[in-house]
Amino acid sequence: MPINIPDQLPAAGTLRKENIFVMTQSRAMSQNIRPLKVLLLNLMPKKIETETQFLRLLSNSPLQIDVELLRIDNRPSKNTPTEHLNTFYRQFEMIQDKNYDGLIITGAPLGLVQFEDVIYWDHLQTIMSWARQHVTSTLFVCWAAQAALKLFYDLPKRTRKVKLSGVYQHRTHHLCHPLLRGFDDYFLAPHSRFADFSTEYLAEHTDLDILASSEDAGVYLAATKDKRNVFVTGHPEYDALTLHNEYVRDVGEGMEPMIPVNYYPDNDPNQPPRASWRSHGHLLFSNWLNYCVYQQTPYDLNHFSEANFTKDDDSQD
């Protein structure tokens, strides 16, 4: 089944060219089924690029999904046309009385900024706390994962001396966990962050199930026992050229960045990079939608209650 997005959203054309089944809102209204309601809080500057990346991953599911786009505030954007934001994005105040099956909070280029210095920090905390009473499962990506660990576990910001950038090998743990269904023992995934997610640190200071980790990149995937909060410290949504574009940008700004690890053939930035993580990214999102959202959410979202969720119920398939 397809994702259901606004008819004129730029991502729709891109996804159709990739032979991804996109259903417009006008067609979806004629189908008498209960689609999943997924909210995407997009914190990235280039919102059109980011929304396309996440919609691509959400599309790989037999479920029909209604996607709503959310922005953190109404400040002007340097990278996204105002008309696009006004047309396709909602403010939190417009949706705060609704319930959702899933919420995705993207990363943000705030790796060297202290939480209390983030202009929308208080508002973001409000949204993450709201999700506990209004969302079945929330997926926190990269910087959002660090922000959620601060809010839910009071973990201080841990920053690496050198930015982690590249494609790293990860080992899966707890292969019977629903989020890891179909995973290989080892898989590749991209990272681009200053945040430090040490396996030992998270194991000592949280009760999270640590599901995948890397010797070089630390924890990659973790989840609460009830699967209502899922933390992804990397970027499975990235396109093949995203790390390249970030590298070129940093070089242009005189930052002298390290060449992204295990990304360019022969470690040569002049050669076209190759995406080696697509299958993993699609499988991760498919598992999240099925086992953390669809299998857990109430049929009638008006009857949403935290009591619906049990910590160790992995029996639903």
Describe the protein.
With 317 residues, the chain is of the alpha/beta class. It has one domain: Class I glutamine amidotransferase (GATase) domain (Rossmann fold), CATH 3.40.50. It is built from 10 helices and 12 strands. Strands 1, 2, 3, 4, 5, 6, 7, 8, 9, 10, 11 and 12 form a 12-stranded mixed beta sheet that branches. The two termini are 18 Å apart. InterPro entries: Class_I_gatase-like, HST_MetA, MetA_family. GO terms for molecular function: homoserine O-succinyltransferase activity. Its EC number is 2.3.1.46.
Secondary structure layout:
Layout: E1 3-5, H1 10-17, E2 22-24, H2 25-28, E3 36-41, H3 47-58, E4 65-70, H4 82-88, E5 89-90, H5 92-95, E6 100-105, H6 121-134, E7 135-141, H7 143-153, E8 159-172, E9 186-195, H8 199-205, E10 209-214, E11 218-223, E12 229-232, H9 242-252, H10 278-294
Parallel strand pairs: 1-2, 1-4, 3-4, 3-6, 4-5, 6-7, 7-12
Antiparallel strand pairs: 8-9, 8-10, 10-11, 11-12
Helix pairs in contact: 1-3
